[in-house]
Amino acid sequence: MKSRALLLLSLHILSRTTGEPINKKFPENFIFGTATAAYQVEGGWQDDGKGENIWDYFTHTYPDRIANGENGDVACDSYHKYLEDVDLLKNLGANFYRFSFSWARILPTGKADQVNQAGVDYYKNLISALKSNGIEPFVTLYHWDLPKPLEDIGGWLNETLVEYFADYARLSFTLFGDDVKNWMTFNEADQFCQVGYGYGAFPPGIRQDGIDDYLCGHTVLKAHAKAYHIYDEEFRATQNGRVSMVVDTEWYEPASDSDQDKEAADRKLQFTFGWFANAIYHPDGNYPQVMIDRIADRSQKEGFSKSRLPEFTPEEVDYIKGTFDFFSLNTYSTNLAEWSDDYAIGNPGWDADTSVTTYQDGSWNSSASSWLKVVPWGMRKLLNWINENYDHPEIVITENGFSDHGELDDQGRINYYTEYLSAILQAILEDGVNVTGYTAWGLLDNFQWLNGYTEKFGIYQVNFDDPDRPRTPKASTEFLKKVIATKCLVDVCED
Ligand code: BGC
């Protein structure tokens, strides 16, 4: 699209994505679901032969790095209460449930020579309970909880993990692929690569900013592609499912009308989202050119003999390109992006390579998470940007949601869902973006990584003070239930 047309579309979007919810229906085949991830809800951290993973190790070794020294040892106890979870999903009328496998529950050492039958049975039982209630399982193979023995050999910095991940993926397709038709290889690789290996705040806690984060990403992209090709070659013909990789970003809006800020906003999107999305989803494949050029240039000025961003061979670019059957997108909020000259050469890092300052507008509605402001027009713009830049893919929103402090009358969450779903509906009906599914994060209040249990994202409340972890529906449960049943955000929709 020409830039003038884009500008007009932007203004149109900005002016329309406010106010009353849209009174038109979601398309007939649009699906709604909700999500969790293994470490955040399962608990049972050493039950029935499960191996240790990096989050078990990290929370136990460095409790001071997690709010209130909390961990996922018990979490929502979904390892024992999964049938109750399925009842909650049934009550909601969910079309699908996105959850992740704990790699170390299936393969305690991470390697395929030791399979933990109890772990396999757990997921078999969960999947069968979902299917018998008409709920499609959407499975993420990796939502951040690497088996500890694989971190001990270097984690995602060691390319051997491509093979270990491929073995785990193949085993999962073999064991569960008759029932699971929607697979996501990785969840938000930018988060676990950058925060885990660059900033060092997530496990494994390595601080090699601008070096190890890129190495991690390189391995992950190869591992994803290998798993996709395994599915394609060995399983697709008989199982007929779909494979994708979840990429996340916030929308970055230029802080001003200046060309520099526009360029900065685009660059931030490329460094956050394009880092993973480009190689898989873009018709050209590979890393975004702006990443390749900037990192090479800065690396050279810093005295490195080659770029800190590893290179793909042309064969690898081709091997990774197009390894998706739908586009999986996680997104929650929006930031303003400003050009910055503050990042002097000499201190390598992802932020310095990007050289963009971001902040949020003080007038935007807040949540319980510092980074999450309610900016529904950002959702619509992001969907349009993906549609334009990635050749009109089918998009499934695999996470979107709002945090508060756990109140049952969660009007803030209802407001967030109403406004974000309205923005999505406009993207579909008015802009022609092919969004086919929406996943509310999350089903339950759960372990929020470094923030422990201080921020609540669930549509069902969990009482973490009670050893039985009782679940209670919030007002948003009823709200979403009605949306799912009617495919409509208001009392009565136009036909
Ligand atoms: C992650 C979830 C997390 C959510 C809210 C996403 O980045 O995939 O695991 O709970 O954000 O913080």
TrEMBL record:
<comment type="similarity">
    <text>Belongs to the glycosyl hydrolase 1 family.</text>
</comment>
<dbReference type="InterPro" id="IPR001360">
    <property type="entry name" value="Glyco_hydro_1"/>
</dbReference>
<keyword id="KW-0326">Glycosidase</keyword>
<keyword id="KW-0378">Hydrolase</keyword>
<feature type="active site" description="Nucleophile">
    <location>
        <position position="399"/>
    </location>
</feature>
<dbReference type="InterPro" id="IPR017853">
    <property type="entry name" value="GH"/>
</dbReference>
<feature type="signal peptide">
    <location>
        <begin position="1"/>
        <end position="19"/>
    </location>
</feature>
<dbReference type="InterPro" id="IPR018120">
    <property type="entry name" value="Glyco_hydro_1_AS"/>
</dbReference>
<keyword id="KW-0325">Glycoprotein</keyword>
<dbReference type="GO" id="GO:0005975">
    <property type="term" value="P:carbohydrate metabolic process"/>
</dbReference>
<dbReference type="Pfam" id="PF00232">
    <property type="entry name" value="Glyco_hydro_1"/>
</dbReference>
<keyword id="KW-0732">Signal</keyword>
<dbReference type="InterPro" id="IPR033132">
    <property type="entry name" value="GH_1_N_CS"/>
</dbReference>
<comment type="subunit">
    <text>Homodimer.</text>
</comment>
<dbReference type="GO" id="GO:0008422">
    <property type="term" value="F:beta-glucosidase activity"/>
</dbReference>
<protein>
    <recommendedName>
        <fullName>beta-glucosidase</fullName>
        <ecNumber>3.2.1.21</ecNumber>
    </recommendedName>
</protein>
